[in-house]
Amino acid sequence: MKSPVVIVGAGLGGVRLAENLRNGGHAGPVTMLGAEPHPPYDRPPLSKTVLTGVDERVDLKPADFFADADIDLRTSTRVTAVDPGTHTVTVESGAGIERIEYGTLVLATGLVARRFPGTDGVAGVHVIRTVDDALALRDAIGSASRVAVIGAGFIGCEVTASLHSLGVPVTLIEPTPAPLSAALGVTVSEMVTRRHREAGVDLRVGVGVDEVLVADGRASGVALSDGSRVAADLVVAGIGGYPDLDYLAGSGIEIADRASGGGVACDGVGRTSVPDVYAVGDCANWHDADGTPHRVEHWTHTVDHAALTAAHLLEHAITHQVVPYFWSDQYGLKFQMLGSPRADDEVHVVDDDGRKFLAYYSREGLLTGVVGAGRVGRLMKARQYLVSPTPISTLLD
Ligand SMILES: Cc1cc2nc3c(=O)[nH]c(=O)nc-3n(C[C@H](O)[C@H](O)[C@H](O)COP(=O)(O)OP(=O)(O)OC[C@H]3O[C@@H](n4cnc5c(N)ncnc54)[C@H](O)[C@@H]3O)c2cc1C
């Protein structure tokens, strides 16, 4: 690997990459540039313990980690351009504009939350991607009489569950017929839906939000595509995020097409189309083991990317076996997904007590994934069967 190493983005992917390089014996200079003013922090707690106020700790590393590991962490420093020709990045910080030379560049710039159209600057409309977003939402909850959550993906569902645990009435609005059905299929989606309905959440499915209603500069509710309206003094848009890659304009670094998820196009170790430039985490579109390009927005995926890219840069043998994994905490239950289940797979529910469940997914007779709630041990045991092709019959006998 060429020195110095410069990492753009001081989030999970950037930190894990730097840590893996150091643990793997790399002694050369490592600089990490992060746009946010905060030291690197973890995002999963934002929609869970931070929102509920149970635990505000989010730091990814102890305060002295970066100095001890000789990693030059620069916060409030945004990269605005990359020039592979001169091997430099342009940064803007409180100190002004500066160019920094790299030998190896790693892009780990994550996502930006998508805002509901027309709501920029409207008070009472929130997203949740950064710690500042989470704290702003939490501060606003106290005075809310009803919250409208737009989008029942994992984050929308988690925010709903967290608000519900605080006793705040929530209306959760989802345009598809059932939450998460596009990702997990109808059978498992119905099990997740049950949790929300039992909790008393006002769940509106098969209906979109046409407009966020505004009165005196503040959100006052949402107008739905079926003509109805929901009065709400807080609106949370859980409608996903996108990689903000404007800083790569003119760099020649290939961006993946939308159909495969967008993001920085990479091979199976994070190499981009430009020599000495790599990408990891939510902003990266990798060719994973099955050869298909895709962009995944999961914590463990980012950790796997950072491990694989670091091993490649260190010229270590790659022994890391990737099995996609995702979790979500809702209503006191841990929802988990292992593997790459698809909505059109065959679903085998092997355990359902009305609250906790476990389901295997298969395609052409082979296990593709496992999804469960409150079944941590059994789900994790199935990981071994997802490392290589396994007939579903092995698990159903
Ligand atoms: C609310 C929330 C809850 C989540 N819960 C779960 C969960 O339960 N389970 C799960 O598997 N995953 C969860 N995730 C997803 C997980 O947190 C992400 O997959 C992970 O954070 C991705 O890491 P990353 O390093 O790619 O990006 P990030 O963590 O987003 O870090 C990227 C950093 O780069 C910085 N940056 C961006 N552009 C620039 C620039 N031009 N110059 C300098 N710095 C820049 C950003 O400010 C940011 O700090 C959750 C995410 C959110 C937002």
Short description:
With 397 residues, the chain is of the alpha/beta class. It has ten helices and 26 strands. 21% of the residues lie in helices and 30% in strands.
Protein described:
With 397 residues, this protein is an alpha/beta fold. The chain has three domains: 5-112 and 242-313, 3-Layer(bba) Sandwich (FAD/NAD(P)-binding domain), CATH 3.50.50.60; 115-239, FAD/NAD(P)-binding domain (3-Layer(bba) Sandwich), CATH 3.50.50; 332-396, 2-Layer Sandwich (Enolase-like, domain 1), CATH 3.30.390.30. Helices cover 21% and strands 30% of the residues. The protein has helices at 12-23, 49-52, 65-68, 131-141, 154-165, 181-184, 186-198, 299-313, 376-381, 393-396; strands at residues 5-8, 30-33, 71-74, 78-83, 88-93, 96-101, 104-107, 112-113, 125-126, 147-150, 170-174, 202-205, 209-215, 218-224, 229-231, 234-237, 241-242, 264-265, 277-279, 284-287, 293-294, 325-330, 333-339, 346-352, 357-363, 366-373. The strands form seven sheets. The chain has a five-stranded parallel β-sheet. Helix 1 packs parallel to helix 8. The radius of gyration is 22 Å and the shape is globular. The structure holds flavin-adenine dinucleotide.
